[in-house]
Amino acid sequence: MTRIDRYIYKQVLMAMGVVLMVLAGLDLVFTLVDEIGETEGTYQTWDAVRYVLFVFPRRIYELLPMTALIGSLVGLGILASANELVVLQASGMKVLRIVWSVMKPAIAVMALGLVLGEFIAPRLELAGELGRALARGEQVALSRYGHWQRDSNEFMHFNAIDPNGVLHGVSIYSFQDQELTGITTAESALYDGNSDSGYWMLQNGEETVFNRAENNPSGQVFHFVEKSWSVELTPDLLKVLIIDPDNMSISDLYQYADRFENQGQDGSAYYLSFWKKVLQPITTAALVIVAVSFIFGPLRSATMGSKLFTAVCFGILFYLIQNLLSTVSLVYQLNPFLAVLGPILFCLLLGMFLLRRAG
Questions:
Q1: Is position 19 within any domain?
Q2: pTM (two decimals)
């Protein structure tokens, strides 16, 4: 790395760091104020602070592409305001060389995003959600109407899950050749992972077995205190349901989406979040290229305020379009990969077009 490369690298990296501190600081304050407003009963201020700190890495992860966009624009804008970019170009430095110098701090932002998104944020997010539920003394309700799962020929429903992995209000519907063959209900289910193949132990329930004789359909009811239940559903997999797909790690998203697909269910929501995370480094690079193209193109002589306003507006527009396409892909069963890739390709083409005109 030459002295000029190092100079641009430090200038842009410093700008990205300042932008990240400002954005993350504002986000932290607003999130903390909003969460403290939810405190009541056993959920006190310290519990709210602890929860916000646990989800803070995920908030930083979400801010990184916008940070790269605004930071690149600000860093190069400072150089442009001092006519340093003009001097660099006059000395024979090509625009693409400057783009590569700016891309180096962006690569550092991409690496930070991968570490946060895969290894740190999802685990802290889950710990935060579970700790919040414990502080409130409640079970983790998966939705207003409970949650449905499918495993082979069994359809199961449970009302809620404790933070320690206990299922409550379990109902299991068994089918064979598209006919209902049995219904099992239980107050709760505990997971026993001590054996080679873990299983659930149903507590306090009853099992109804239907006899499908042609002229004498009937059902037998058996009551039980405990009953083993083998299913490919572990507490670790169930805890994933507590957090939104957008807050899960790449590996968990793929595992859960693949499981849905193998069960003949729609896993497009998980594939959509999966591709968003996988392609986030490319998203960051595309936004940086757009920022550089603005500096050498439409915003060459604009004020710093105009540059910041343009960067924020473009970033918001990008995420609005991406979210719109994501929703459309889920509604109309379109390819999630193409829905995520579309806005990224638009940014890349726009940036390359503006750079070509400027060059």
A1: yes
A2: 0.86
